[in-house]
Amino acid sequence: MIMKKNIAIALMLVVVFAASGMNAASAQNLAPEKIHSAVDQVAPIIEDTALELWKHSELPLVEFKSSAYLMKILEDNGFTIKSKGTAGVPTAFVAEYGAGKPIIGIMTEYDALPGLGNEPVTSKEPRKDGVTSGHGCGHNLIGAGGLGAALALRNLIEEHKTPGTIRVYGAAAEESEGAKVYMAREGVFNDVDAMLHWHPNSVAGLWYARTAAVGMLYVEFSGKTAHAGLEPWKGRSALDAVEIFTHGVNMMREHVEPTARLQYIIPKGGVAPNVVPDFATVKMFYRDIDRAHVEKSMIWLKQIAKGAALATQTETLAVDYFGMYDLLPNTAMANRMQQHLEAVGIPSYTNEEIAFAKEIQKSAGVELTGMTKAVTPLPAQVPTMGGSTDVGDVSWITPTMGTFMPTIPENIGVHTWMATSCHGMSIGFKGAVNAAKVLTATGWDLLTDAKFLAEVQAEFKERTEGFTYKSPIPDIIKEPVLLPEDMKKHESVVELKEYFKKHAHEEGF
Ligand SMILES: [Zn+2]
Predict the structure, then answer these.
(1) Would the pLDDT of 483 be above 90?
(2) Residue 386: pLDDT above 90?
(3) From ligand 1's centre to the CA of 137, what distance in Å?
(4) At residue 15, does pLDDT exceed 60?
(5) Is the predicted pLDDT of residue 509 greater than 80, yes or no?
(6) CA-to-CA distance for 41 and 29, rounded, in angstroms?
(7) Would the pLDDT of 18 be above 60?
(8) If you measure from the C-alpha of residue 199 to the centroid of ligand 1, how many angstroms do you get, rounded to a whole number?
């Protein structure tokens, strides 16, 4: 039964390929204006989606309305939802249009940040509807622009009878435990021939940089409580253990390579000074140039936790609950995408928009230069960055390239209320439309120019020789640790403790 079906599909594909061979060859030469107008046709959908997701401003892992909104539009336009709640992330999804190879992936995101809610105005002004979260990183635009590129490519495929598949990834929760890493572990990127993505920024340039790999460590210490004045000798302070742990981290900092970054917070450190704290926690992000460096740090950090527990007669649980790879560049794809970026250019702005941008700059106390005026050239060398992205994991599985498009004025950073403002009005929406043009043009080349795709894949093969993707998430973690308790399907805390006991020896405890 299965074999027969496969043969039937194979035959169908042969017919499709044979029939469309000529179209595909001529389609390669589509003029840029054709591609840009395919995006202009769906621009109203991009703008509506950008605004809708901005209004929702849902936090990571609970972006139910935003992901449903994107899936509905995709379904209405002939895409099939292949998976919902993908890889244990309730708001992740995979949608697909077309048939056969090549499979071109497009990444969407749609999570907002806490505390960054703002009216789309040039001063700091809480939203009238009471929503306190905001799209300060512009993931509403990533969702809308990615969707727009997918719809434009779908229309081009249909018009030119081109073989190939457009796969849209609903990559939820980029700001916390990025769904892409869970999705990567599940293997949903394995058959993708090339992946496209974009991110809002103040510049128009490619995401042609090596970001840092990151590990995330949760450490808890359990001690014994007692009256801190009357009988302190009966207590064992979990906070003391935290203090020794963080001191150890700061000593370690002195002897790691300059590329390392070690940062922590202390979410729980006790409740009152006259009560010996019996429970305290630390959360850490540790970054470095690649996974190998990060994994070395992870072992050391866990040893420090163990040492702090021994010194204070407390118990510790230290779990590397999440991590991300560094971003692997692809020069062949970058060169082509850069050409498309230069052809698309930066959006043209009205006088009102430029005035808005300058008012935002005034609020931020930076020079009143407005929006960027030129596309940034591709650097000769791949620069390294201290930040991380969950696109990193994808980039080690399939050739991946992304672009930046201006959505905020010059010298304004993302993760600010100023960015939230711009991402909820026409400056941001125009950025999403232009980004969709760059992705569509590059996607069309990947679909129809077999020589170009082969170059992209050959470079990827060379860069990843001898490499096998190993998820940074331990097997024991079945779903995001930060999922709200009522959404969890796994008793993660109990399982984590078991994991700790079992693996303590191997990991250097
Ligand atoms: Zn972001």
Answers:
(1) no
(2) no
(3) 5
(4) no
(5) no
(6) 20
(7) no
(8) 7
What is the pLDDT at residue 11? 40
Compute the distance from residue 74 Cα to the ligand 1 centre, in Å.
22
Q: Which pair of structure tokens corresponds to residue 204?
A: 């128009």
Centre of ligand 1 to C-alpha 429, Å, is 16
Instruction: Give the total residue count for the chain.
Output: 509
Cα–Cα dist 473/475, whole Å:
6
CA atoms within 13 A on the CB side of 252: 21
Distance 175 CA to ligand 1 centre (A): 7
Q: Domains plus CATH for the chain?
A: 2-210+326-462 (3.40.630.10), 213-325+474-503 (3.30.70.360)
Tens of pLDDT along 430-476?
Answer: 999 999 999 999 999 999 999 999 999 999 999 999 999 999 998 88
> What's the pTM?
0.89
Which tokens in the block code for residue 479?
């779903």
CA of 211 to the centre of ligand 1 (A): 13
Sheet holding 213-222, edge to edge: 261-268, 279-288, 213-222, 315-324
pLDDT at residue 264 tops 50: yes
pLDDT at 3: 40
Q: Ligand 1 centre and the CA of 49: distance in Å?
A: 17
Q: How far is the CA of 495 from the centre of ligand 1 (A)?
A: 31
pLDDT over threshold 80, residue 5: no
CA–CA distance, 158 with 134 (Å, rounded to integer): 37
Three-state SS for 432?
helix
What stretches of 207-366 show up as alpha helix (H) in DSSP?
Answer: 238-253, 291-312, 331-344, 351-364
CA of residue 364 to ligand 1 center, whole Å: 20
